[in-house]
Amino acid sequence: MSQEILIKAGQLILSLSILVVFHELGHFIPARLFKIKVEKFYLFFDPWFSLFKYKKGDTEYGIGWLPLGGYVKIAGMIDESMDKEQMALPPQPWEFRSKPAWQRLIVMIGGVTVNVILAFLIYAMMLWHWGEDVLPHDKVTFGIQTDSLTRSIGLRDGDQILSVDHKVIEDFSRVGGYVVLHQAKTIQVQRGSEQVEINVPDTFVGQVVANKATILLPRTPAVIDTFGEQSPARAAGLKVGDRVMSVNGATTAFVGDLLDTMKLYNKKPETVTVGLLRNGQALQVPVQLDSTGKMGIGFASPMDTTLMKEYFQPKHIAYSFFESLPAGVRKVGTSLNNYVLQLKLIFVAKGIKPTESVGGFVTIGSLFPPVWDWASFWQMTAFLSIILAFMNILPIPALDGGHVLFLLYEVITGRKPGEKFMEYAQYVGMIILLGLLLFANGNDIYKLITRH
């Protein structure tokens, strides 16, 4: 478990480091192009001391010890450094405040712009290198696997999803997310020989979020894909590719059925008889469960074209370099839209509490996989880059968006806000940001404490 935590933490730190450096480069490069003096360029914050620093020209480059972001200190600008002494002196031609408003505006939107460009490049290069795998909605052979939440609204195991609010979603992996993000009102399904319309209650989305449930998964045959380190199933002779059909006579041909059945053996180190299909041959194998009542097996995904080829027909889409570019743009648009819809849910969906939906670094770190997988890492980094861009452009003092708001006011009115006003606005913004930071990370700590 500690190894998994270290791997997740390593991915989080590397991802944030990449994003912060590129974001600050977005400010640094146009500032230097406009001959504005940049005094510091830091990855992470450096109160009292820094881990590493060196000076080249007028700029000190370094790495701080507090991994909460990074910054560039631009001369003649009211920012988080709150350098009042410099601001009290007469403006110098190489200072930020001495430059035309349009140049200052470009400097301030540079970080957000670079984050959006970075997300686009990551998505485009991923599509070019790995392509994209989708599961067409009409190729979900066994329909859906329900849980207590989805059964409560009338869905049943084996239902074939036809559409959501009468909109056909071609990639089945996006159906569950669409239902939640768009607060769907109806789901149309094929059940046997009849078509059924399921009405989705207003409280459903709140229940999904509160339970951190992943809904509308394909009903997947229980085909073994991996074994745990000390797997009782492997010790008993089970092999990758075996399909588990029963446990002590209870039918478990699908993953959901097997998981439900194994709950009966929670913390019971019993010996169970596992019915298997191996290369078309039926076998009965006794398995001694571990002390937690587990067999120590993992299951193949419907996207596994080797182990699941006889059950599903996923579609692989390959992209040429030039095809990946517009596809990358679409990915950025989709990811940004989905993130905005997630934020909207906090305020409009019934039954959703901010404490269940807002998290800090622990929550973000948990989104990375427990093993180092470059495809997942870059996917997550691209999404975080979009989040960083969106959050930074919000019109809150101390964020890029706050500076942009005041600069737009100056461009429109021809009047620059007073330095005292900017100073107080910066204080207010920093208090807001610090409060949000404490709330989000305090919420993470509270969840960790109450979970154990």
Mass-distribution shape: elongated
Structural class: alpha+beta
Helix content: 40-55%
Instruction: Give a count of the beta strands, DSSP E runs of length 2 or more.
Output: 15
Low-confidence segments, given as residue ranges, are none
Beta strand %? 15-25%
Give the SSE order as H and E letters: HEEHHEEHEHEEHEEHEEHEEEEHHHHHH
Arithmetic mean pLDDT: 89
In whole angstroms, the N-to-C terminal distance is: 15 Å
Major sheet strand order = 11-10-12-13
**Rg (C-alpha, Å):** 27 Å
What's the tally of helices?
14
Largest sheet: 4 strands, antiparallel
Q: How many discrete domains?
A: 3
Draw up the topology in text.
Layout: H1 2-33, E1 38-56, E2 59-74, H2 84-88, H3 101-130, E3 132-134, E4 144-145, H4 148-152, E5 160-164, H5 175-181, E6 186-191, E7 194-199, H6 204-210, E8 217-218, E9 224-227, H7 232-235, E10 243-247, E11 250-251, H8 255-262, E12 271-278, E13 281-288, E14 297-299, E15 315-317, H9 321-348, H10 354-357, H11 361-366, H12 374-392, H13 400-413, H14 419-451
Antiparallel strand pairs: 1-2, 3-15, 4-8, 5-6, 6-7, 9-14, 10-11, 10-12, 12-13
